[in-house]
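lol forgot to send this yesterday, sorry. struct tokens for the thing we talked abt
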């Protein structure tokens, strides 16, 4: 059962007329009163000779206390609450609805038991579909104003007790994790315009993907512009020049007067407001990511821009090559270059000449958390080993000649580099699922779940999979913490966000190898299933249902990617993955017999593909 308190209104006559009318789609059947401050038989609107209802007496009786208050009355005195039973519940009769309406009015304090002649005046209208509408005027009959003390929560408490008393289906409670749904007008307008979905849904997907693939505010707005989204910034009224919010619009989505229709970030989803986006990016200020790069731990209260823990050698080289190339393209001198590396969250180490003391001969870069898996030593990559054009002598020659650099494009990873990124993302997702199954602290679990939504949004664009996009859209609710809370940073969350950032830089749909795609979809499915188990254990039923639906969509994505027998059983940290299994394919032809060597013959064997390994070896020093 759900009890929803609607926005207060000013005209009780219009609301009563609507509740007794046919409804917007003729869904109202046999409207009548089931309860009120008096017996419903005394308050039921009588029939006129022409067969229509006469609501004047009921409206006047409801508004009498409001009129008596005069100037002390509220501007909007009409209180409206809808109470609806679950579709699986039996049809409740008028007697049950009378008891339920009276209990809700008693719990809210608007009309307590035994004080019906002193409290507010109210009625409950039942017009089919196993629900009622409670209408009250916020003026007490004893001449005092009606006090509303957290009426929304009081209604929820009453509904929970009513479910237990009547043995009804227990429904999940609202927790402000759901995104704003398109209104009926938006849906109908999109259908008339031939759009596949309302602009609100399209914009939410664009903004979520742009936030997942960027690590700063300028990058975020640039990513929206590349996606063809119009952006309007909102400046602070107290601090001129300070941006406090934003709104987005789709080209062609306009009002009748030709003005663009704008949607603020908070109108798209609870976690897409600009203040909350800033909380997911490095630090809380412009310079905070410098401290986070050196102290990326969860106790620092800061978020590192990129995190290198668990990166494979191929993924580390690809990521560092891209970040160094971007810094080199923007720099016009050596100090600017190293400042850009620091701003990008990279760790830089200088190598000095052995023959000319004090002269810098080269540099090496790394990421926070990019350490050797055995001895914990930081792993470094020289500029020359990343790309010959990124060595310090080559950059100095370019700077002396005054030639501008060429920054990498928005989609910098393709081919083998994209395969390395896919493999790294799969490994990070598997490690995050293991950590959830190991029962981490509530803050760490919340940050992992929140970062999982970023990985799904970025992977959907990189893989070009409609099934994965549906999973990302549906999972977003399961990722958010209740009541708009922002979870504290964690190492696992930092790894997931780094994977999302790198996946967003892959050419959309450009990497088609089914094995790597299957591995990524399988790992993401295990992670979504672990989050579903987490939300179930936390008794957040709506979020658990969203995560389970996303898990099913990921299963479909793995099948579409030609997952093969490997998708039949996926195990995470020794525990069976909670996402649905797919049947293993049987070979179409019998296996070939093993070859036997003839005397004196040599059989050539192809090298078996080696699994991805964490970066290993001694610290690398290059030019």
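and heres what i got for the seq, position by position
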């Amino acid at each position: 059962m759900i009890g929803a308190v609607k926005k207060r209104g000013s005209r009780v006559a219009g609301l009563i007329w609507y509740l007794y009318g046919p409804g917007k789609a003729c869904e109202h059947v046999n409207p009548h009163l089931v309860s009120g401050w008096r017996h419903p038989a005394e308050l039921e609107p009588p029939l006129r000779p022409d067969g229509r209802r006469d609501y004047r007496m009921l409206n006047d009786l409801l508004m009498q206390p409001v009129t008596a208050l005069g100037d002390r009355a509220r501007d909007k005195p009409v209180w409206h609450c809808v109470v609806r039973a679950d579709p699986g519940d039996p049809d409740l009769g008028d007697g049950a609805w009378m008891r339920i309406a009276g209990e809700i009015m008693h719990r809210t304090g608007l009309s307590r038991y035994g004080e019906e002649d002193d409290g507010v005046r109210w009625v409950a209208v039942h017009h089919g579909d196993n629900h009622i509408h409670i209408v009250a005027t916020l003026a007490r009959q004893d001449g005092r104003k009606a006090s509303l003390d957290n009426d929304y929560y009081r209604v929820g408490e009453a509904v929970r007790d009513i479910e237990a008393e009547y043995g009804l289906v227990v429904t999940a409670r609202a927790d402000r994790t759901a995104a704003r749904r398109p209104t009926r007008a938006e849906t109908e307008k999109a259908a008339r315009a031939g759009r596949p979905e309302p602009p609100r849904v399209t914009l939410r997907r664009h903004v979520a993907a742009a936030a997942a693939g960027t690590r700063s505010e300028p990058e975020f707005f640039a990513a929206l512009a590349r996606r063809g989204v119009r952006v309007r910034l909102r400046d602070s009224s107290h601090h001129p020049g300070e941006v406090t919010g934003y709104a987005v619009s789709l080209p062609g989505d306009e009002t009748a007067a030709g003005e663009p229709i704008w949607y603020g970030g908070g109108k798209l989803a609870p976690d897409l407001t600009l203040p909350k986006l800033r909380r997911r990016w490095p630090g809380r200020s412009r310079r905070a990511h410098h401290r986070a790069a050196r102290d990326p731990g969860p106790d620092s209260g800061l978020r590192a821009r990129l995190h290198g823990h668990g990166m494979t050698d191929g993924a580390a080289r690809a990521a560092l090559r891209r970040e160094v190339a971007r810094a080199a393209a923007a720099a016009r001198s050596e100090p600017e270059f190293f400042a850009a590396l620091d701003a990008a969250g990279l760790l830089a180490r200088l190598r000095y000449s052995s023959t000319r003391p004090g002269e810098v001969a080269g540099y090496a870069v790394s990421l926070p958390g990019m350490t050797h898996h055995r001895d914990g030593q930081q792993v470094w990559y020289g500029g020359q080993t990343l790309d010959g054009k990124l060595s310090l002598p080559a950059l100095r020659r370019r700077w002396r000649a005054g030639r501008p650099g060429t920054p990498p494009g928005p989609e910098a990873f393709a081919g083998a580099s994209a395969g390395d990124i896919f493999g790294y993302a799969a490994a990070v997702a598997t490690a995050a699922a293991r950590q959830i199954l190991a029962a981490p602290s509530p803050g760490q679990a919340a940050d992992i779940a929140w970062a999982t939504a970023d990985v799904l949004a970025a992977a959907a664009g990189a893989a070009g999979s409609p099934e994965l996009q549906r999973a990302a859209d549906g999972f977003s609710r399961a990722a958010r913490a209740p009541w708009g809370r922002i979870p504290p940073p964690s190492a696992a969350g930092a790894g997931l966000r780094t994977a999302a950032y790198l996946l967003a830089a892959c050419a959309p749909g450009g990497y088609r190898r089914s094995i790597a795609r299957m591995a990524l979809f399988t790992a993401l499915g295990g992670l979504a299933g672990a989050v579903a188990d987490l939300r179930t254990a936390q008794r957040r039923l709506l979020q658990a249902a969203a995560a389970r639906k996303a898990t099913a969509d990921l299963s479909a994505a793995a099948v579409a990617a030609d997952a093969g027998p490997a998708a039949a059983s996926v195990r995470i940290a020794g525990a069976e993955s909670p996402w649905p299994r797919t049947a293993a394919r049987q070979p179409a032809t019998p296996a070939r017999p093993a070859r036997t060597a003839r005397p004196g013959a040599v059989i050539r064997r192809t090298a078996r593909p080696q699994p991805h390994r964490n970066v290993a070896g001694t610290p690398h020093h290059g030019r």
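Residues 236 and 242 are 6 Å apart (CA to CA). anyway ping me if u want another try
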